[in-house]
Amino acid sequence: MDALLNELQAGMQRRLLALPERIRPFTTSFTSLPRAISLTGPRGVGKTVFLLHHAKGKKILYMSADSPLLAGLKLYAIIKQAFLAGYEGVIVDEVHFAKDWSISLKAIYDEYPDRILWISDSSSLILRSGTADLSRRFLQISMPLLSFREFLFLEYGNSYSPIEAFTNSSSYTDSFKVQPEPKILEAWQKYKQQGTRPFYSEGNFSERLIAIMEKSLYYDIPFLVPSITDNNLRLMSSVISTLAQSVIPRLHVSSLCADWGIGSDKLYQLIGAMEAVGLLRVIRYEQDKKAKTAGAKLFLADPALYMVLGSNTGTAREAMVAMFCTNSGWNVYASKDETKGDFIISQFHNGKVIRFLLEVGGSKKVKKSADFVIRDDIDLPGLTALPLWLLGMGW
């Protein structure tokens, strides 16, 4: 076991030395962390960097549960030995790959009340599927895709405060905190193509994003859908390809079920799993409370996938608005009357619920009956016309 701990420590040191000079602001916005956290988020958003950044200066041991070093070993025994060796805490990445991980963590948490336990995974639903209840013990932190505001920091080192585009009557003035000068607008075009995950700067973004999509399908979803078949996996790949090319972001459930020989319950289960691991974003009508649904609109959760897979521009814009608004704290719903607008967003603000109807399009898009029209390819906002890039400054 001592040899294993030495190997893990050496691996952690290599990772610490490889940390980027600029780290996404979501990570650095946390000045300190409690002793037990559960960090979730899509693959490739920087969860490992988050954990290692906060481990600097502490005697904490990092391990990834999918490492061959840990194959066949009990997580409980490894962590206990690390504590006996003098470590003040452990990080367990990709925790669901460890056998009986939830039981082990519950026991360690209770037996070592003064030690640090930080875990991560790609889906909170995967963590909730554990047999032991960890929710009341671990602080839940959800890490979203990279915002345009964070992208500007990684590109240029410029720090901007989040901008609330809808409820702030001075959003026009706020936009000048980020002067839409040529380099900002150039960065916006780059962000739309490959800016949603911090590894964009390392090159081969398209190939890496496809690899993440496939790993989410073939490695993560089987933990949520144990009875999954090869036919189910091919169906989910087909759903992604179909949505990437669709002008109207919806699925024809009955046709899909007939074509692939599955029941609607199974299809809804697969869609729910794809949503849970960050592949899809289901947008419902405002009063739709059905557990089994493909939504009123169904988007790829990462808008950059539309660019990688060769998409319809209008659908990609709508997917980006849905992502921006969701990550900025808004509830996002589909409009039942698309002659008036595309989305309804709502939020509890200053003691009351506020709602706005949004229309989404290019630089010439008209407002229809919406409260705001979100236009891509414009630089400055007007009273009710907001540039799409401004929404990307919300978190």
List the defining traits of the structure above.
395 residues, alpha/beta, 12 strands, 15% strand, ATP binding
TL;DR of this structure?
The protein is of the alpha/beta class and 395 residues long.
Topology summary:
Blueprint: H1 2-17, H2 25-28, E1 36-40, H3 47-55, E2 60-64, H4 75-84, E3 89-93, H5 101-111, E4 116-121, H6 124-128, E5 139-142, H7 148-156, H8 171-174, H9 182-194, H10 205-224, H11 230-245, H12 253-260, H13 264-276, E6 280-283, E7 297-300, H14 304-309, H15 313-327, E8 331-334, E9 343-349, E10 352-361, E11 372-375, E12 385-387, H16 388-391
Parallel strand pairs: 1-4, 1-5, 2-3, 3-4, 10-11, 11-12
Antiparallel strand pairs: 6-7, 8-9, 9-10
Helix pairs in contact: 4-5, 7-9
Question: Can you describe what's shown?
Answer:
By secondary structure, this protein is α/β, with parallel strands linked by helices. It has two domains: 141 residues, 3-Layer(aba) Sandwich (Rossmann fold), CATH 3.40.50; 243 residues, no CATH class. 41% of the residues lie in helices and 15% in strands. The strands form three sheets. A five-stranded parallel beta sheet has the order 2-3-4-1-5, with helices on both faces. Strand 9 and strand 10 form a beta hairpin. The chain is globular, with a radius of gyration of 22 Å. The two termini are 43 Å apart. The model has no long low-confidence stretch (mean pLDDT 92). One of its GO terms (molecular function) is ATP binding. InterPro entries: AAA_14, P-loop_NTPase. Pfam families: AAA_14.
